[in-house]
Amino acid sequence: MTYRVCFVCTGNICRSPMAESVFRARVEEAGLAQVVEIDSAGTGGWHEGEGADPRTVAVLGEHGYGTAHTARRFQPSWFADRDLVVALDTGHLKALRRLAAGEEDTRKVRLLRSYDPAAGDDLDVPDPYYGGLDGFEECLAMVEEASTGLLAAVRERLEGRAA
């Protein structure tokens, strides 16, 4: 049985494609690529059809991650096909919860940094769009840290399904 994870940010060109790429690499390293599907989307459609921001592509490439991506907007019907919808900040979390059709959908929405014990109460991944390359590097570091805990949680869910 496949476990499906979707990362969501604002326009699907910076944070969520970065999280998608990092998490895909972690899943592949863990040997779970056959049972975990990963994608991403934005809460808005401003960049639909575009590639990831060039700064996202540059930072991902520098760190050895894949960069193929086409932006799209999250659709409420996708809740039925996703096991986990991961928001990159509290604004996205609220937007996704508004789109949720009921409690089952709402329970699928989590903040990425909630999987990083070192994050404390600061659970937002800041939007690097209006800044320089250093903001994208900071974003990547946060995504990488949280991806370790997220992978552990997904692995636990998969083991629970197999039991």
From TrEMBL:
Keywords in alphabetical order: Hydrolase, Protein phosphatase
Reaction catalyzed: O-phospho-L-tyrosyl-[protein] + H2O = L-tyrosyl-[protein] + phosphate
UniProt-annotated catalytic positions: 9, 15, 127
Source organism, top-level taxon: Bacteria
Keyword hit for Cell inner membrane: no
Hydrolase found in the keyword field: yes
Annotated EC: 3.1.3.48
Molecular functions per Gene Ontology: protein tyrosine phosphatase activity
Domain Phosphotyrosine protein phosphatase I: 3-153
InterPro entries xref list: LMW_PTPase, Ptyr_pPase, Ptyr_pPase_sf, Tyr_phospatase_low_mol_wt
CDD domains in the record: LMWPTP
Family from the record: Belongs to the low molecular weight phosphotyrosine protein phosphatase family.
Name recorded for this polypeptide: protein-tyrosine-phosphatase
Native source organism of the sequence: Streptomyces collinus (strain DSM 40733 / Tue 365)
